Amino acid sequence: MNLKNLVLLIIGTLFFSCQEQPTEETQSAPNVEFQNKGHELVYKMTQKVGDYQKLLDKKDVVYTYTYTTPDSKADISIEKYIFDGELSYAAYQQHERTLPEMEGLIEQGYDGHTYWCKHNGKSVEDKEVMNRAIFSRGTNFYWFAMFQKLLDPGLNYEYIKQETVDGHLYDIVKISFNTNEGEASDIYQLYINQKTSLVDQFLFTVDYFNVSEPFLMKVEYEEVEGVLIPTKRAYTKANWEGETLNENWIQVRWTDIKFNNGLSKKAFEL
Question: What kind of fold does domain 34-268 have according to CATH?
Answer without folding.
Answer: outer membrane lipoprotein receptor (LolB), chain A (2.50.20)
